[in-house]
Amino acid sequence: MSLPPFMLLRPRRLDEAVVRLADYGPEAMIVAGGTDVVPNLRAGLFSPRALVDIKGIGELGGIRFDPRSGLELGALTTLTAIAESSVVQEHYRVLAEAAGTVASPVLRNMGTLGGNLCLETRCLWYNQSTVWRKACGFCLKKDGTVCHVAPGGERCWAVWSGDTAAALMTLDAEIEIASPRGRRRMPLTEFYKNDGMDRIRLGRDEILSGVRVPARLAGYRGSYQKLRIRSAIDYPLAGVAVAMQLENGICRDVRLGLTAVNPAPLLVREVGELLRGQRFSPEAVEAAAHAVIRTGKPLKTSVSTPEYRRDMLRVFARRALTRLWSSNGGH
Ligand SMILES: Cc1cc2nc3c(=O)[nH]c(=O)nc-3n(C[C@H](O)[C@H](O)[C@H](O)COP(=O)(O)OP(=O)(O)OC[C@H]3O[C@@H](n4cnc5c(N)ncnc54)[C@H](O)[C@@H]3O)c2cc1C
Ligand code: SF4
C-alpha cells in the first residue's frame, strides 16, 4: 500500500496548470485535497508520471453570493467551508446538508468541491489493494477481463459515490471548465456519463474550475438523506437530495436527485412532473417515492445488499418530501 513514484508539479496559476496537464497528457493526474487520489494511488489503481497539485492556485478558492446572480463556488472550496457557510445554509440548504455529510470532519477540511464532483466511481471489487484484486483475478475496470458484479457483460457498473453532485443538480448548477483553449460552462447534469469506467466529460487538459448556482433557486427548502455503514465517516450507499419551493402549502417546484446507486448521480425528473401544483398528501409522496425506486438501480457493488439500498431510497424520498412539505419546512 505504499505510494508509487511520481513527479509532483505545483502550478500557482490556472493557465499554467492546464498547460502542465496538456504536456503530460494521459500520464498526468490532478490532485486537490488528495483524500480520494492518495488512497487510490496506494491501492495501485493509478500510476501517473506526474501529479498536478492544484491546491496552490488562489483563483480557485472562495464562496461568493449575489442575490441577482446567485452563488459561485471555487473548485478548491473545502466541504467544511460549504457546510458551514451561512450563505449556503440560508439560501441553498440541500447543498449545505450534503457537504456536511461527506466522510469525516478531517476529510471535509481537506476535501474540495472540485474533487468531490470528479471522484472516481467505487466498487467492492475495485477499491481494494493490488493483492486483494489479484486474488480475485482483477476485474474489467483494471487489469482483468470479467465484471464480478455483472458477469458476462462488458460494462463497468462501479457506483458514483459522491454526496454533493446530486444536491447541486437539484439546484440547477452549472460547472465551469478551464483548458488551454479557454473556459467553457456545462450544466452539471450533463457532466456525468453513467459509465463506471469513464465517469465524466472532462478532457485530459481540463480542470473543473468552479460551480455556479442560479439566484432563482435561492431560498428553496432542502434536505439530503444518506445511507452509510458508519455515519461518522463512510461514503454513501444511497443518497436522496431534494430542493422544494412551496407557496401556501402548494408545491410550486421540486427537484429530487439520487446518488450512490447508479454509475452517475442523476435527477428524477418525474418527481417534479408528479408533484408540481399539488398540496401535500401521502398518496402524492408515495407516487414520487415509486418514481425514485424505478430510477435507482443498485447492484452488488458494496457490502450492503441492492434490495436494502433500493428500499432506503423509497424511505429517504418519503422522509425528505414529507419533512419539506410540513408547515415549518426543512429549516
Ligand atoms: C474514509 C473516506 C471516506 C469518504 N467518504 C466520503 C463520503 O461520504 N462522501 C463523499 O462524497 N466522498 C467521500 N470520500 C472521498 C473524498 O474525501 C471526498 O469526495 C472529497 O471531496 C474529495 O475531494 P479532494 O479534493 O480530496 O479530491 P482529490 O482526492 O484530490 O481528487 C479526487 C478526484 O478528482 C480529480 N480532481 C480533483 N479536483 C479536480 C478539479 N478541480 N478538476 C478536475 N478534476 C479534479 C482528481 O484527479 C481525482 O480523480 C471519502 C474518502 C475517504 C478516504
Ligand atoms: S462493476 Fe465490475 S468492472 Fe466495474 S469495478 Fe466492479 S467488478 Fe470491476
Low-pLDDT runs: none
Please count the helical segments: 12
CATH architecture of one domain: 2-Layer Sandwich
Name the beta content range.
Answer: 15-25%
What is the average of the pLDDT values? Answer: 96
Which structural class should the secondary elements be placed in?
alpha+beta
Strand order of the largest sheet: 4-5-8-6-7
CATH fold descriptor of one domain: Enolase-like, domain 1
**What is the distance, rounded to the nearest whole angstrom, between the alpha carbons of the first and last residues?**
44 Å
CATH class of one domain: Alpha Beta
Evaluate the radius of gyration.
Answer: 20 Å
Name every ligand kind in the structure: flavin-adenine dinucleotide, iron/sulfur cluster
Multimeric status of the protein: single chain
Q: Quick one: how many beta strands?
A: 12
Q: Note the main sheet.
A: 5 strands, antiparallel
* Overall morphology: globular
In which range does the helix fraction lie?
25-40%
The CATH homology group name of one domain: CO dehydrogenase flavoprotein, C-terminal domain
Written as H for each helix and E for each strand, in order along the chain, the element string is EHEHEEEHHHHHHHEEEEEEEHHH
